[in-house]
Write a structure and sequence with these properties.
The longest helix is centred in the middle third of the chain and has 31 residues. Helices cover about 70% and strands about 5% of the residues. By secondary structure, it is mostly helical. It has one domain. Helix 2 crosses helix 3 and helix 3 crosses helix 4. It binds zinc ion (2 copies). One zinc ion binds next to helix 5.
């Protein structure tokens, strides 16, 4: 009977474990990412901010090599975030002034709903949803 060489067997075993572990780790990461979209974005943003700070030349180089991408991403970020920030400010003011009533519960019954804007250009048109329903809704929208 021919047995595999110890080194080969060891290597195969090692590789199997590594691939398997890598798959599992990836699965865990994806599940975590799906369950914590906000945290994931924050982490990602933080990481890229750190990277830009640590590699300013590389970041500049990237911007220089991809001026269009750089411009579009900056513009998109500005548009998206100023509109979003403005919508939240307007809504918060309206809630404070009593023009909008924030319900105590989500339609599902959970407490402390948060505002969901279906359209940031209509800051007072909001759905009050708990974080679970809110996440579900965004996952559906994509
Ligand atoms: Zn939302
Ligand atoms: Zn809910």
């Amino acid at each position: 009977m021919k047995r595999p060489k110890a080194a080969e067997a060891g290597n195969l075993g090692m590789n199997n474990i590594t691939v398997d572990q890598r798959e599992k780790a990836r699965g865990r990461q994806q599940r975590w990412r799906a369950a914590h979209p906000k945290e994931y974005v924050a982490l990602h943003r933080e990481a890229s901010r750190k990277w830009k700070k640590a590699n300013p030349e590389k970041h500049r180089e990237w911007c220089r090599l991809h001026p269009d991408k750089h411009r579009t991403s900056v513009r998109k970020w500005m548009e998206k975030n100023t509109e979003k920030a403005a919508a939240h400010t307007i809504l918060n003011d309206a809630v404070k002034a009593g023009r909008i009533t924030r319900p105590d519960t989500c339609p599902c019954g959970n407490q402390n709903p948060e505002a969901h804007h279906s359209d940031y250009s209509k800051p007072l048109m909001v759905y009050w949803l708990c974080s679970e329903c809110h996440k579900k809704l965004h996952r559906k929208d994509g």
